[in-house]
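An example makes the point: we let one protein speak, the chain in one-letter code, the fold tokenised, and here it is:
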Amino acid sequence: MSHRRKVAAVATVGLLAAVGTLVATTTAPAKTAHSAASAKTCSFQLRIGDVLPFTGDLAAYGANLDRAVKLGVDLQNKALSSAGLGGKASVKLVASEDGQTQATASVEAATKLVKSDKVNVIIGEMASGATIPMAQSVTIPNKIVQISPTSSVPQITSIKDNGYLWRTYPSDALQGRVLAQAVVDAFGKGATVNVGARNDAFGTALRQLFVAQYTKLGGKVGVNISWNPDQPNFDTEAQKLADGNPAGWVIIDFPDTFQKFAPSLVRTGKWSAAKTLMTEALRNADVLSKIGDPVNGLRGTAASAAGGPAGKAFAAYWKAKVKGAKPYTSFEGTALDAANVAFLAALKACSASPAKIKANLRAASGPPGKKVTFLTLGKAVKLLQAGKDVDYEGAFSPVDFDANGDIGSAVFEIWKYDGGGKISTLKTITFRG
């Protein structure tokens, strides 16, 4: 993989007439030769650490994603044992660190994992504003593989990472287009909407992408503001966002902040959740039910596990195996997929070396090869030990990394909060790489 990575995405649409093609100019890393190592000679310990938001604005998700990584590691070790590699090769989740949905804590956590815990792979963070500093300050200079389960800003694609930064969630280069078309469909061509977003890497990038695409489609933007997620009060921003007579609103925020922002919006007497579209972070019935009736009818866009070949199977597996967790959201599949592709790449390389893992991630995650899922890792171990290819089919997406370390295809949905803790899917849009 070249040091400079650029987006490559081709969309096939139901909702969108055409989203265009962005051409990648990078050169894909050469595939490594098949490992012909036998079970007797393939010996390694893969050391994984995760940095996830157990506190902060995305705390609604962090603990569940950590549980998903743990499920993956458990399945991986069982697969090794069933293939006769127990005691020769193993996987260990060394530590689960709190990234707190922010940069400083995530960098400190990643530094600990690299310097003290000697990990080969870090899974995290969820927030782009934490993932990017982690990569630039810790994982890239230390040559450690980093796989973010949910970071979506387009900037990640072009970071000079020497092939060490990956993600199992689609770029917002796609979501910006889906969101813009969803607003056109909701309010009509040429409608004026007010736009507000949290002032961080995620909010800033997606707000700009949305505005550019929406105006391109003929829409008009009235108020266009951002806010500091850490400020104690949001009354001023809520009043600005409610000004004028817009057809609707687009709000880009995380759960913890929006739970504080929503009451301020309600107090304006002008805002309507039924005329508001948000994004994936608020597609969380547990969070929305805590806010209550004021958010009934809220809609939004989100990447969906509907495109994950093993999505339904993992949802059932989670329900059967996981007790005492927060309600399942489907984003757990992104963390499971991150852990599994790291494992399969290490097994293909017969090594836990980060350099060898990164060189095998594309080959282990996509075609050609026998299709395997989280439920057939034992089969994957035997195939790889025989020197054959595997194609991992994920719980959230097919994965199929492109030359930039992005997933090559994705499904987005338009969702609606119906109240009473229930979310429905109104429409899905498929992008294929």
